[in-house]
């Protein structure tokens, strides 16, 4: 399996635009990604991850406008985005109906949810620009298994990837997950950004 340097971004972007799935370094762990505006790319990601197709993937966005293009951003969400993103925060928001509506659960409920992130990575933000859309981004491992900690582990566990991007990751604490879909905040996973910090921002 080919391992790409981050400087080979044009070739990497072409793989994603052709519905491929690749592994990338992130601010926390290695991830695997695919473009969001293609059902074929999504299905390829489901196969690589070996994950139920009804369970959606987090979405990596470059900026606030991209988040607004796929999710409903209310005042609480806006405060948290401006305070903590890009950074180790994942927000679970109500998905806009027209955003990647091909996913199985789209339309099955009154609202669908989407988890969004922004990462302080020049490479990933440039990759989003070149692909022309946000990216599904999930940890590099089979569903239910431990996160891969090296490119060798990724290649062994996810042999159907279309390539891997080299780079350093921190293997730090996973991001804090905050669910805002019901109006009140719900901490789904504790992480680097603590609940009292979140509450303090929301009270401003």
Word description of this protein:
By secondary structure, this protein is α/β, with parallel strands linked by helices. The chain is built from seven helices and ten strands. The protein has helices at 9-17, 39-49, 64-70, 75-84, 122-131, 151-157, 195-203, and strands at residues 3-4, 22-25, 30-35, 59-60, 89-94, 113-117, 135-139, 164-165, 176-179, 186-189. An eight-stranded mixed β-sheet has the order 2-3-7-4-6-5-9-10, with helices on both faces. A hairpin with a 4-residue loop joins strand 2 (22-25) and strand 3. Helix 1 packs across helix 5 (122-131). The longest helix is centred in the first third of the chain and has 11 residues, at 39-49. The chain is globular and about 50 Å long. The mean pLDDT is 90.
Describe how the helices and strands are arranged.
Layout: E1 3-4, H1 9-17, E2 22-25, E3 30-35, H2 39-49, E4 59-60, H3 64-70, H4 75-84, E5 89-94, E6 113-117, H5 122-131, E7 135-139, H6 151-157, E8 164-165, E9 176-179, E10 186-189, H7 195-203
Parallel strand pairs: 1-8, 4-6, 5-9
Antiparallel strand pairs: 2-3, 3-7, 4-7, 5-6, 9-10
Helix pairs in contact: 1-5
In short:
The protein has 204 residues and is α/β, with parallel strands linked by helices.
